[in-house]
Specification:
Length: 290
């Protein structure tokens, strides 16, 4: 674990690798996005998490183009907007994302949320599988999928394999969820671990709302690190891929400076709670009809 660095990667079910630390751009205004993503690249991040719904894919693409970093060293994620799933919308969104970012391929495309009903989810997945075969996307995944949505996907992927042929139903590489010590989602974690699906952690620093929590204090003192850094380390050591967001250059740096200490097993446990306390929306609880 101590050997984790900002350049460490995890191998996904797709066969491609994903950098263990991502840089999130939710609520990053489009007019500052290029500058902050460029700063993140200078700091050493190589993984940017955007979404069509964030309205900042274009400045992310501009920062990637201007970075001078070889394209294959950068990992770019986008997402099909919630409530706009379905086959045709998804197909169109993939092309729009490629167009606005100027990228030749998207590293990872996620279904942003399971809303929209069964047919919409199925259609979206089929369109993503086809886009992957066409070389437009490298890896596929979902976001905010609870166990009921994942079970449904598994059945659907079997059906799709019968329809399209063996190995032609795609593989889920990632499930992106709100994850932190107050929302560890052991049910989804177990479901995904069994199948090699990597969990990405959004809101890994709980939007700064719990930095004063008592359990963090002994660790910030012992390691001389901030509460945000301890939370990011917890996430990394859980095997998650945390996606901290900041538009503040000093915090962008701080959130990447988490590779020179390691929490012990007891310290990891000391942070764990049985709470279920989301700080963002929670589509994982949506019914299959929603
Ligand atoms: N798939 C989904 O549905 C979904 C939902 C939410 C988020 N996400 C992804 O996950 C990323 C992260 O989630 P998030 O942005 O909601 O939450 P977050 O990363 O936990 O927190 C971001 C907030 O914390 C502040 N902050 C950042 N670093 C800090 C530090 N070191 N100390 C104190 N405060 C700090 C930021 O302020 P400043 O920016 O002002 O510095 C911002 O207000 C998003 O950007 C997005 O890419 C995905």
């Amino acid at each position: 674990m101590a050997s984790l660095t900002i350049n460490s990667k995890l191998r996904m079910n797709s066969g491609y690798e994903i950098p263990v630390l991502g840089y999130g751009v939710y609520q990053t205004p489009a007019d500052v996005c290029e500058a902050v993503v460029s700063h993140a690249f200078k700091t050493g991040y190589r993984h940017v998490d955007s979404a069509a719904a964030y309205r900042n894919e274009a400045p992310c693409g501009a920062a990637i183009a201007k970075s001078g970093i070889p394209r294959e060293q950068i990992f770019f994620t986008s997402k099909i907007p919630p409530k706009k799933l379905g086959y045709e919308n998804t197909k169109a969104q993939v092309d729009t994302t490629l167009k606005v970012t100027g990228l030749e391929y998207i590293d990872l495309m996620l279904i942003h949320a399971p809303y929209g009903g069964r047919e919409a989810r199925k259609g979206a997945w089929k369109a993503l599988v086809e886009a992957q075969e066409a070389g437009k996307i490298r890896s596929l995944g979902v976001s905010n999928y609870g166990v009921q949505h994942l079970d449904e996907m598994e059945v659907y992927m079997k059906e799709l394999e019968e329809e399209r042929g063996k190995g032609k139903a795609g593989v889920i590489s990632i499930n992106q969820l709100e994850l932190h010590p107050w929302l560890a989602r052991s049910d989804v974690d177990q479901w995904c671990s069994k199948r090699g699906i990597i969990l990405e952690a959004y809101c890994p620093i709980v939007r700064g709302q719990r930095l004063e929590e008592k359990a963090l204090q002994p660790l910030t003192t012992k390691y001389g690190k901030t509460a945000a850094q301890v939370l990011l380390r917890w996430s990394l050591q859980k095997g998650f891929v945390p996606l901290p967001k900041s538009v503040t250059p000093s915090r962008i740096d701080e959130n990447a400076d988490v590779f020179d200490f390691e929490l012990t097993e007891e310290e990891m446990k000391s942070l764990e709670t049985t709470d279920y306390a989301p700080c963002a929306w929670d589509p994982t609880k949506a019914s299959l009809e929603e």
